[in-house]
Design a protein that fits this description.
Blueprint: H1 2-30, E1 58-60, E2 69-73, H2 77-88, E3 94-98, H3 106-113, E4 124-127, H4 133-146, E5 151-157, H5 161-171, E6 176-182, H6 192-211, H7 213-217
Parallel strand pairs: 1-6, 2-3, 2-5, 3-4, 5-6
Helix pairs in contact: 4-5, 5-6
């Protein structure tokens, strides 16, 4: 019994060491997504850079490219503001915001943004179905397919971008994707909640990466 207990403890320590090592790699990786908008403090939102492959969605770094549409994943105020700024800069013809709360309207988002824009409300489309990142990709795919969109600028928090990219790459094959990572207001990276957020995101990233292995390895 003592030997079995000792083995369990050893395995647990090895597992923790592997998780911590992976977390360090993950933190270094997400730091490569220098926010194109906002600060770099994590919020409490939910929601590997890959070389382009001919038959897959392709990704590019920000920030001066143009696309058919901007896709924003909700979860932080700066994400939506960044999307509205890109639309105002005429970087795309449409802005699609996925995962919007049912009580939110375009007019309310524009009032919070606090700027004026030449783009009429028709250019901002709200998606109300998605509740998580995987559903974000599905909701965006349906809208993209219906509107013959060939290229997008994907906007989300920089720590969330690796996981979002995997979900969108799996779902939006053939679509040209430019990533646009943003910072956010809220926690400091060094406080307990901030580290908890990043650790939680890393754990979710592991799960998504494992489920996406058939796609990533083909």
């Amino acid at each position: 019994m003592m030997i079995r207990k000792k083995h369990i403890i050893i395995v647990a320590f090895i597992g923790i060491a592997i998780w911590l090592g992976g977390f360090a790699v993950f933190m270094n990786y997400v730091s490569s997504y220098t926010p194109a908008f906002g600060n770099t403090e994590p919020d409490n939102s939910e929601t590997a850079q890959q070389n382009s492959q001919p038959d897959h969605a392709t990704a590019h770094k920000p920030t001066h490219e143009y696309a058919d549409a901007i896709i924003v994943l909700t979860g932080g105020a700066n994400r939506i503001n960044a999307g509205l700024d890109l639309l105002d800069e005429q970087r795309a013809s449409y802005l699609f915001i996925s995962g919007t709360d049912q009580r939110v309207t375009t007019e309310k988002l524009l009032s919070i943004w606090g700027k004026t824009t030449d783009k009429p409300p028709c250019c901002v489309v709200l998606g109300y179905k998605a509740k998580n990142t995987k559903q974000n990709a599905t909701e965006a795919y349906e809208w993209i397919k219906d509107n013959n969109i060939k290229s997008i600028i994907l906007v989300t928090s920089y720590y969330h971008m690796p996981r979002a990219k995997i979900e969108f790459f799996k779902t939006l094959e053939g679509t040209n994707v430019t990533v646009y990572p943003v910072g956010f207001d809220g926690y400091s990276k060094i406080d307990l909640k901030g580290w908890g957020l990043l650790a939680g995101e890393y754990t979710k990233f592991i799960g998504v990466s494992i489920s996406a292995l058939p796609y990533l390895l083909r």
